[in-house]
Amino acid sequence: MKLRKASAAAATALVLALTATACGGDNGDDNGSDTGSGGDTIKIGIKFDQPGIGQKTADGDYTGFDVDVATYVAKELGYDADQIEWKEAKSADRETMLERGDVDFIAASYSINDERDKKVDFAGPYLLAHQDILIRADDNSITKPEDLNEKNLCSVAGSTSAQNVKDKIAPKANLQTYGGYSECLTGLENKAVDALTTDDSILAGYAAQEQFKGKFKLAGFKLSNENYGIGVQEGSDLKAKINTALEKMVSDKSWDEAVKANFGPANYKNEPAPKIGDIVK
User: Fold this and answer.
1) Closest CA to 233 of 121, 124, 111
2) What is d(CA 121, CA 104) in angstroms, rounded to the nearest whole number?
């Protein structure tokens, strides 16, 4: 509408500017409702140290299945790859990062569970993983979980996976604690340990590294169900938009291509792409 008097027009413009500023402070920073319109950048949390899942390489690139999924989702939200600002999302920091608005969403081997769901919202799931065992490719002595009794099982400091195996499946397993999964793989290669355990997707990613190709295999025990979801701030309208993007990624076969590219070696038998909202207990 055009106003005849300049003073009236100026007053109207001032009121509109103040109103827009107030609304922007309430909505854009709190729940990410403005994200997805193709702005300048989008901030995404991933793992930096999980080959095949999310890894920051020595030359500053980002690779892995979660990276491929997040990049696809960002594109569907209106962002090109060079508009993505990657943030390291360590396991203990993920809920806090979302609550503070440090990132717009997180794709970081982020298993959906009841405790986390109280603090953040999840789109997906986009991958059904399982706790499994990685062993040497030529080792035929471990064919069932109970065969881990009397075996040296690699335990990463801070992880509960190996302890769960000892407590519930193979009480006579000998836990050997290492600083990280890469050290476990070296120990497995050198026969200092007989097996290591965590999510099968993570194990497959490590085993797919060039220096380890053909040396290890997954046992395929499926000791647990891990439903990977994309975390967003509670109440964010991004959840619905990301779910739509994930459905498209599956339907156009980009999901299958990402699985093959990142988890191909190590005898990884992935589950079919899960349906949105279908949480396997």
Assistant:
1) 121
2) 12
Task: Count other Cβ atoms within 10 Å, centred on residue 247.
Answer: 16
C-alpha to C-alpha distance for 34 and 241, rounded to whole angstroms: 12
pLDDT along the chain (281 residues), means of 10: 40 41 40 59 96 95 98 98 97 95 97 94 98 96 97 86 92 93 92 96 90 91 95 98 98 96 80 96 91
Beta strand 152-156 with 174-178 is parallel
In the chain, what's the furthest Cα-to-Cα distance? 90
Phi/psi region, residue 82 (left: phi>0; alpha: psi -120 to 50; beta: rest), is alpha
pTM of the shown model? 0.81
**In Å, how far from its chain's centre is CA 29?**
23
Q: Residue 231 and residue 73: Cα distance in Å, rounded?
A: 13
Measure CA 102 to chain center. Answer: 16
Instruction: Output the pLDDT for position 101.
Output: 97
What H or E segment, with its residue span, contains residue 17? helix 6-31
- Token digits for 91? 């396991």
Q: How far is CA 223 from CA 5, 66, 199, in A?
A: 74, 22, 9
Tell me, what's the pLDDT at 22? 41
- Among 134, 143, 90, 152, smallest CA distance to 263 is for 134
Residue 180, token pair as written in the block = 């990280």
pLDDT of residue 19: 41
Quote the pLDDT of residue 266.
Answer: 64
- What DSSP string describes 179-196? SSHHHHHHHHHTTS-SEE
* List of residues 6+ apart from 2 with CB closer than 8 A: none
pLDDT value at residue 269: 86
